[in-house]
Amino acid sequence: MQITLAELAGKIGAKCHGDGTLIINSVASLGQAGPSEIAFFSDAKYLDVLNVSRAGAVILPEQALAAYSGNALVMANPYLGFALAAQVLDTTPAPASSIAPSAVIAPTAQLGVGVCVGANAVIEAGAVIGDNTEIGPGTFIGKEAKIGPYGRIWANVSIYHRVEIGAQCVIQSGAVIGSDGFGNAPDKGRWVKIPQLGTVIIGDRVRIGANTCVDRGALDNTIIADGVVIDNLCQIAHNCEIGENTAIAGAATFAGSLKIGKNCMVGGASVVNGHMEICDNVIITGMGMVMRPIDKPGVYSSGIPLQSNKEWRKTAARTLRIDDMHKRINKLEKQLAAAASSAKE
Q: Which ranges carry the UDP-3-O-[3-hydroxymyristoyl] glucosamine N-acyltransferase non-repeat region domain (predicted)?
């Protein structure tokens, strides 16, 4: 991929500063970029790296031009500019580029114009695949599943029966969409399986990471709204509802029937209890343990930050004595209150 700096500026909405005819062929970090690569600068603490960078051009904010004499693309949000430039210069191969002879496609499946299906993929009866969607090798698309146009489904993804996926969605390898939720009824020491009769409804422009599982609903549906991004190794249990443009980092676990609002961010390895609601615009930092509903936007944290083992052992020992300390403090407070009352008399 090659593009002039001026052409790239037009594609990402930036102002070109310097040699617009410079050929750019890839993106790179500020410290490692070479003469035909573009990097970005958005943090003043990297000013020393900017001054010695060999990048052919740098995406930076207007206020940084005074400190940089090289070619630049000027944008208010350089990080966004970098993301857009990376999309323009992306060389990632397609999951599939044709319909492989070894693909197994049911006669009643409907494939749109330009659909590609990789080797050994299976598309079952009644499935509907939108125009220009790419299905990677070894992927399974269940009966009556629907996938919108311009999707990218990578290798070895499993999409169960009746799952519905919108337009321009990306699902990475090993993801499982529509598997059974954890529904079991106790009966005299054994567990009786509850069939999961709902499905999964996924909106447009959703991205789901590798080896993430999204369970189908027990009766109603599991719903993931437009623009949601979910990292690798996440668990979304049955009947969860995730609002528009919410981002979920790796290894996060959502219990069943959780409803989370729009524009939220959930840090990696967080665990969120089910059967409750989290409002819009909530940020849960990494390893958060959310046991109660959240009804006010803001940043929420829990957990114990890393300490040296010696310090952590002391913290743990004191934590185990917290109930005893609480009782002693209450007793002392009562004694102080009594003493203060006596002094007034």
A: 22-87
First to last CA, the chain: 88
Q: What is the pLDDT of residues 209-267, one digit of tens each?
A: 999 999 999 999 999 999 999 999 999 999 999 999 999 999 999 999 999 999 999 99
* Structure tokens that stand for 36 in this block: 């035909």
Overall pTM > 0.90: yes
Cα separation, 260 vs 240, whole angstroms: 8
- Active-site residues: which are they? 238
Computed from CA positions of residues 141, 149, 197, 184, in that sequence, does the dihedral angle turn out positive or negative?
A: positive
pLDDT for residue 345 is more than 80: no
68 vs 47: CA distance, rounded Å: 9
* Amino acid symbol at 309: N
Tokens of 254: 């959502």
149 neighbors 131 (Cβ within 8 angstroms): yes
Structure tokens at 137: 């090798």
Is the distance from CB of 246 to CB of 266 less than 8 angstroms?
Answer: yes
Which of 119, 125, 124 minimizes the C-alpha distance to 99? 119
Q: Is the pLDDT of residue 40 over 80?
A: yes
